[in-house]
Amino acid sequence: MSNPNYYYMRRTIFLLGIALSVMLFPSCDEETPSPVFSENLLTGTWKPVSGTDCTSETPYDFDDCTQQTRYTFTADGKATLIDWYTDGETCVSNTGTGSWTLEGDVFTVINTTDNETYVHTVLKLNNDTLWLGYINGDPDDACYQQQQSTYFLKVE
After folding, report:
1. What number of CA atoms fall less than 13 Å from residue 12's CA on the CB side?
2. Least trusted range by pLDDT, from 30-34, 62-66, 67-71, 111-115
């Protein structure tokens, strides 16, 4: 016949092991805090140079027309947005103004000219590079509602 004390001792050790595991290992439900980026690093003029879309994670370079785009963010929260794009075979521009905010890694640009709000996730930011991730909001685009990113260089 088995010893009843041995059974209780094994059960106690097993339960103690579970209790220690629960206390020692962090919960998987805890959120990792978002990185905090300095607003000072965002001020200046930026040009897009490359991006990714839903078709590939490999970055592609923007054409010469698109690289004429300039986004200027001032320290007082104002934004000037000069977008260049190809319309047929012609390179044309569209200018907008608005405001911007940065909270943690969430970068929001409000284009008051077009009444549009753009919300981005800052993936990388330093003195001369900015990498933004965003969800495509253009229903006419093949990548609608999917993650994309744009890589910028500071020009001023």
Report:
1. 6
2. 30-34
Polymer length in residues for the chain: 156
SS3 for the chain, per residue? CCCHHHHHHHHHHHHHHHHHHHHHCCCCCCCCCCCCCCHHHHCEEEEEEEEEECCEEEEEECCCCHHHCEEEECCCCEEEEEEEEEECCEEEEEEEEEEEEEECCEEEEEECCCCEEEEEEEEEECCCEEEEEEECCCCCCCCCCCEEEEEEEECC
Domains along the chain with CATH numbers: 39-154 (2.40.128.280)
Residue with tokens 């007082």: 76
Percent with pLDDT over 90 in the chain: 58
pTM of the model: 0.73
Q: Which residues contact 27 (CB under 8 A, 6 or more apart)?
A: none
Q: Distance between CA 36 and CA 119 in Å, rounded?
A: 16
Render pLDDT for 44-64 as a digit per residue (tens, 0 to 9).
999 999 999 888 878 899 999
CB 70 within 8 A of CB 82: yes
